[in-house]
């Protein structure tokens, strides 16, 4: 069955834009989508459309249609005529009623029925509609992940603190939230910091909408999956799914504290498509629709300017600057003397006339098209999240002039974390003065070191954004995974309450559990478990065995054990699943205990427990179990266990045992198995027999990437950097195989140990430019070590400053060793001090600092450092043999 998503959002341009992009991405993934916003916004999007009672099909995307809901104000809200209080009260009642009718529409020959509702922020009533109809509901978070964290914690324990600091005007107070860097109160979303009297109703309604939304998510988490049998003791909560318009590289750690509460999927940045004349929906802000002729005019104007010379200014679809502010911006643009392209909404009072053709002022433009133009060198923005993402994806440095909502947080992330722009500081009256804007423009576009770094970072984040969206990128994979998850969920619902109302039998349930195991999706797996418990087949041991395997593979070992204990007749499949689950999840004693109780042990069971021992580092235990298996004459009917046991021998560097295992491979007839052969190469290399490793590698008729990388790793670890590089050249020139992250890491380390500085730089550049591999912390560390070992202190220090991720103590240690080799004592001390501040409780850091002082003859500092170390690391009082004798 094909999925049919109903996408719902509040009638604001900043909400509509990302949801439209998500709709198109879902259609591209093969789904049907119905897009729904309020009637008033729908009319502005499609002014030629007359019918509001039937879906309007998109002229470009066949599976996309538009069906508006009524909020009770179909002609639009007019603040001069309508009460805000009445509007919000009415829309809260009318909108869900209307959406219920849309979502419950029956399927047709052209489209299936709605199968899932995706709702944007503030639409807190949408999940209630979904629950009434038995549909899954998914939140689409259209702001940064960091803002999700802030709102969540505001409603979960931090409200009183934030409110008190806001009331006391203690806006510089530094707030530490889980998973986030410290953030000042003034940089939190304005809706929860300060509320102006004239917008109390609107702001309070929005904040209430956020609160209700989190209440709905909490309620969804409270739903347990089981209610009967011996499994009823489980209180495992459901993790609601949340789609986020961000990407993994941009906010890698913010969502970690929520892993047990929500299932997040970053799917951004969702960027606008190029403008066309094909009848796609217009913007809902009246003056924000441009004709193709107007677009051509401003694009031709941009074409005349040099690369990165034009200042682009736009302050969003809601902000209309006052006359005084327009005058200050005009003055700054005149003083800076650079060409500018300025989008001005509403009255242009205070906007200076353009002189000498240096500027262009328009009421609206295709922002993504403008930002992508190579003439644009700076983006002065209100820091709305859509604009921020477009700036990031275009690689344009930004100057932030936040207005309200999450924009203060966005600008803090931009300046403090991503460092691809700067904040413009406003006066107490909220006005951005011309001198401050001029300073910012000169910083970002000038020749200074800070501006150069900002521009470098902007290009880096552009690359990261593009990589996340390309096929196989993090956001692309997440969206594909989401669609597959929903597809499985739909299959479950159809099995449970199909059109013919036939309940699923044990075979169907078992198959569905296996599908969830393949996806490693315990969330949907628990839905199947719940269906199983209330079905007529609740005692089916085949299904229970499948559940044991599913929970084990998903790491929920206690749940697996509860199901296991409920199995009446435990066959070898069920026992093996539980043994494997214990072993692979680190419970080796429990695994071996259960294993010893088994009356029979097939090869799969031996393979499962031995694999678990090797994965958890107990190589000796794995080898002992393998010897026991051989003593019991278990036939090697498949070779799955051989790579695992070869790895155990390699990890222990036991060459004699490795040779015996090699003989077993030959006798058993698996010498042509590529996976096993690759493992043999690795084993001989790790056991210091590089000659035999080369012989086996050369005998492989058709090698894969693993074969080449394994041999390259072996040569590098034996100090044969030139041979490793020769193999790399052969791999890329003579085969179609592409090197991976491990290949490059080993080559960089080999270059470092061999002193091949230039070759190491070439490798690093090739990895990034030619193979589009994002460097990890290990790659950066290898490059630092390469320069440090060669005494290139200045180059290493400059490289460290350019790294887009915070350096760790290993990087600093590499730089420190370089300074010590060159005799730069002062710099060594500074670096050691920095390391000490990073890990004040690490004894080795004190030792490093003490040794550095000793090299410079500063014995008083040596004594102080050792005293500090003694104070921080006092051992507890204990007993010795002397005192007990």
From TrEMBL:
Keyword 4Fe-4S recorded: no
A GO BP annotation: cytidine to uridine editing
Matches recorded under SUPFAM superfamilies: UDP-Glycosyltransferase/glycogen phosphorylase
Keyword terms of this UniProt record: Repeat, Transferase
Tagged with keyword Calcium: no
InterPro entries, A to Z: E_motif, PPR_At4g14850-like_plant, PPR_rpt, TPR-like_helical_dom_sf, UDP_glucos_trans, UDP_glycos_trans_CS
PPR repeat copies, ranges: 602-636
GO molecular function: RNA binding; UDP-glycosyltransferase activity
Family: Belongs to the UDP-glycosyltransferase family.
Matching PANTHER family: DYW DOMAIN-CONTAINING PROTEIN, PENTATRICOPEPTIDE REPEAT-CONTAINING PROTEIN
Protein name: Flavonoid glucosyltransferase, family GT1
């Amino acid at each position: 069955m094909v999925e049919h998503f109903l996408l719902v959002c509040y009638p604001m341009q900043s909400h509509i834009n990302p949801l439209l992009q998500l709709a198109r991405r879902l259609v591209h993934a093969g789904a049907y989508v119905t897009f729904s916003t309020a009637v008033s916004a729908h009319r502005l999007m499609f002014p030629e459309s007359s019918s509001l009672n039937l879906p309007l099909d998109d002229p470009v995307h066949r599976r996309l249609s538009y069906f508006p809901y009524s909020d009770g104000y179909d002609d639009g809200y007019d603040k001069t005529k309508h009460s805000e209080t009445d509007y919000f009260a009415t829309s809260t009642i009318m909108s869900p009623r209307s959406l219920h009718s849309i979502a419950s529409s029956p399927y047709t020959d052209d489209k299936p029925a709605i199968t899932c509702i995706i709702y944007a922020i503030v639409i807190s009533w949408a999940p209630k509609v979904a629950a009434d109809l038995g549909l899954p509901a998914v939140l689409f978070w259209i702001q940064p992940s960091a803002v999700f964290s802030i709102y969540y914690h505001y409603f979960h324990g931090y409200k009183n603190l934030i409110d008190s600091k806001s009331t006391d005007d203690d806006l510089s107070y530094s707030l530490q939230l889980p998973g986030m860097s410290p953030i000042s109160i003034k940089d939190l979303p304005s809706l929860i910091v300060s509320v102006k009297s004239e917008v109390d109703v609107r702001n309070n309604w929005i904040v209430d909408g956020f609160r209700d939304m989190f209440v709905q998510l909490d309620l969804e988490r409270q739903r347990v999956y089981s209610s009967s049998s011996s499994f009823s003791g489980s209180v495992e909560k459901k993790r609601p799914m949340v789609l986020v318009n961000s990407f993994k590289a941009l906010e890698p750690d913010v969502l970690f504290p929520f892993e047990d509460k929500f299932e997040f999927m970053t799917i951004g940045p969702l960027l606008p498509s190029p403008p066309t004349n094909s009848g796609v929906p217009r913007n809902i802000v009246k003056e924000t629709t441009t004709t193709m002729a107007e677009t051509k005019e401003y694009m031709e104007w941009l074409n005349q300017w040099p690369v990165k010379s034009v200042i682009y200014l736009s302050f969003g679809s809601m902000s209309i600057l006052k006359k005084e502010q327009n005058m200050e911006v005009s003055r700054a643009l005149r003083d800076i003397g650079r060409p500018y392209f300025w989008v001005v909404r509403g009255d242009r009072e205070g906007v200076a006339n353009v002189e000498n053709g240096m500027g262009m002022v328009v009421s609206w433009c295709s922002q993504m098209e403008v930002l992508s133009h190579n003439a644009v060198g700076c983006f002065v923005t209100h820091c709305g999240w859509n604009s921020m993402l477009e700036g990031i994806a275009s690689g344009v440095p930004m100057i932030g002039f936040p207005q309200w909502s999450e924009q203060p947080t966005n600008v803090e992330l931009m300046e403090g974390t991503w460092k691809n722009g700067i904040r413009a500081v406003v006066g107490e009256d909220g006005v951005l003065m011309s001198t401050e804007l001029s300073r910012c423009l000169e910083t970002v576009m000038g020749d200074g070191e800070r501006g150069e770094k900002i521009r470098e970072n902007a290009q880096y984040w552009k690359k990261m954004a593009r990589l996340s969206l390309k096929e196989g990128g993090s956001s692309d994979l997440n969206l594909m995974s989401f669609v597959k998850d929903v597809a499985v969920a739909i299959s479950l619902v159809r099995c449970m309450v199909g059109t013919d109302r036939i309940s699923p039998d044990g075979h169907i349930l078992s198959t569905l559990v296996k599908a969830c195991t393949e996806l490693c999706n315990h969330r949907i797996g628990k839905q199947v478990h719940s269906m199983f418990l209330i079905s007529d087949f609740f005692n089916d041991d085949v299904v229970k065995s499948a559940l044991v395997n599913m929970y084990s593979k998903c790491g929920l070992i206690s749940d697996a054990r509860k199901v296991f204990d409920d199995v009446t007749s435990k066959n070898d499949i069920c026992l093996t699943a539980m043994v494997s689950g214990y072993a692979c999840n680190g419970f080796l004693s429990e695994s071996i205990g259960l294993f010893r109780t088994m009356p029979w042990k097939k090869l799969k069971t031996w393979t499962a427990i031995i694999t678990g021992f090797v994965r958890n580092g107990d190589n000796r235990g794995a080898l002992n179990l393998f010897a026991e298996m051989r003593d019991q004459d278990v036939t090697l009917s498949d070779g799955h266990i051989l790579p695992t046991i070869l790895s155990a021998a390699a990890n222990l560097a036991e060459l004699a045992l490795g040779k015996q295992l090699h003989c077993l491979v030959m006798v058993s007839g698996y010498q042509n198995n590529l996976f096993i052969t690759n493992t043999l190469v690795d084993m001989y290399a790790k056991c210091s027999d590089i000659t035999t490793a080369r012989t086996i590698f050369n005998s492989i008729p058709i090698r894969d990437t693993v074969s080449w990388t394994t041999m390259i790793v072996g040569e590098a670890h034996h100090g044969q950097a030139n041979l490793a590089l020769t193999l790399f050249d052969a791999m890329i020139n003579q085969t179609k195989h592409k090197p991976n992250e491990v290949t490059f890491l080993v080559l960089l380390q080999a270059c470092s140990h061999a002193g091949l500085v230039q070759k190491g730089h070439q490798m690093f550049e090739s990895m990034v430019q030619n193979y589009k591999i994002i460097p990890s912390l290990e790659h950066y560390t290898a490059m630092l070590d390469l320069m440090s070992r060669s005494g290139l202190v200045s180059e290493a220090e400059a490289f460290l400053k350019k790294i887009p991720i915070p350096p760790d103590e290993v990087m600093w240690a590499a730089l420190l060793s370089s300074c010590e080799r060159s005799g730069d004592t002062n710099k060594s001390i500074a670096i050691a001090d920095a390391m000490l501040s990073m890990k004040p409780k690490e004894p080795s850091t004190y030792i490093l600092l003490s040794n550095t002082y000793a090299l410079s003859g500063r014995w008083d500092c040596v004594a102080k450092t050792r005293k500090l170390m003694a104070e921080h690391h006092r051992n507890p009082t204990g007993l010795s043999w002397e005192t007990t004798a």
